[in-house]
Model the fold of this input.
Amino acid sequence: MRTYGQYCPIARASEILAERWTPIIVRNLLAGCTTYSQISAGAPGLSRSLLTQRLRLLERVGVVEVQPKPRGRGVVYQLSDAGRDLREVMSALGAWGERWLELGDEHTNPRLVLWAWCTAYLERLPDRRVVVRFEFSDQPADNRRVWLLVDHGDAEVCKHDPGFEEDLIVETDARTLAYWHLKRIEWADAVRCGRIRIKGPGRAPWRRTGYRTTRRRGRRAP
Done:
């Protein structure tokens, strides 16, 4: 671990938390991820070797605790008291980013947006199988179609067709989906103005989650 060699607590904390990918890993743990695969799914682009290094560092400094799985092989990762104490830090960082930083096209990976939504509202998803195919008009051909598979309270974002009958097809662009998840636009408003188009007889799984979006005063989606 590199050090600034300074007594300052900001410098000492930065030696841990300012490492690339570490805030994302902590964010995923705060969101309820407990397994290696769950943490990795919320950090596309993070290599397995680097994720392993970061988790070992967080364990060594007392931010993460590693325990055997209650059933089967493998381990689970949980935040310690010190790790859970980072919630306010991460919230403040997120609030600052939302206030001062623009949302660019490079920030709107649609699979990650869907993963974040499922992670936040997993307990409210339907207790039946629902398959929704998303068509993103602004994405390259190999990333244009994404499937959301909800299966009895569990959810998975799939790059390839999961093989079940589709209940809905949602046509939109990645920026609109990100703005909806950030609560900058209402789903109904986006449908009404044509930014989201829905095909199929089924009901979207988020209709039953109680997830409502509200416009933020002074903010307007482009």
